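hi!! sorry for the late reply, been swamped w classes. u asked for the two structures so here they r. pasted raw, havent cleaned anything up. first the sequence of the first protein and right below it the tokens
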Amino acid sequence: MKIKTKNKTTMIFFIVIVVFCMVGFVWQRYFWFDLQYDQYITQCCNEQKVSKSLVYAIVKAESNFDTKALSNKGAVGLMQLMPDTALFVAQTQNITNFDLTNPKDNLMLGICYIAYLQQKFDRQKDVVCAYNAGENNVKQWKEKGQDIPFKETKNYLKKVERNIKIFNALYK
């Protein structure tokens, strides 16, 4: 009798673990990345020829989908755009009226900025580093044959690359 009770307990424990893992996977799928702007992100990414998983990874790293995010350096919104960068991108796109606190404006300008960086750099790694550390810094590193000298940018690149893998595992 003790053996059967022990086997039942083990089996119940095993079932609970499996259910817990399945619930955890479903939870991650719906809560790891906020998909409320997915249709708009998809549209902008298609128009600008930018990877949707890259955009989600950057938003996750920059603001964790907080539309009201404001950095101590002045970066605003989902994609944590600096006002000067947003103005530059808006001018290249002939956009005269935008609000960085508006999620759709922020996403559109951020995706256009990624597209701009993709024209400047061949590798996604360089695009991500330029998004974080600035285009001119990345150009200087490359000209000098240096690896990424900023610890913050190294960590940012790792975070974005990890987020891309997670996004692709959950949604592709």
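now the second protein. again sequence first, tokens right under
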Amino acid sequence: MESKRFSQIVVGGLGVVVNSKSEILFVKQRKGPYAGNWLLPGGGIEYGETALDAAKREIMEETGIKVINGKFIATYEMMGEWEAGKYHILMITFLFRSDLPIPPNFEGHNVDGIVWANPQKIKLHPTDMLILKDSGLNDLSDEEIKSALKDNAIKMNAYTKNLTRPD
């Protein structure tokens, strides 16, 4: 089933959730091409749902934290290959603020862990390196990000109203 889902372009909503300590909300992905990595919460848009509502729903399903008032960051396009074949993902990404704690004993949907973390103290997935840089939440160089994406055979583009950043 998982490989069938990725046989088409997957379009999703993604959330960068930041608290007042400048920590970011991450989930340990259980399925998909980036399984086993700490990632920003997000997932597929359901028919009739806006991208913003999808990001909010995915954050709630994966972390138990309700967010409101997201601000558009960019749309990210990610392409690569994994054991199930090729993938092509478009993630419409929003920035949220929240100081809510992770609910005790909460088990997120399709995730194996949830954490608030300083982005300098967690192993960032290469895709999140670029997203967090564009969000103003890390100071990695463009060369560091390009190198990490290349090392993981990920082609990634960012599209905003002010910026088009090819891999």
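hope this helps!! also noticed smth abt the second:
The two ends are 30 Å apart (CA to CA).
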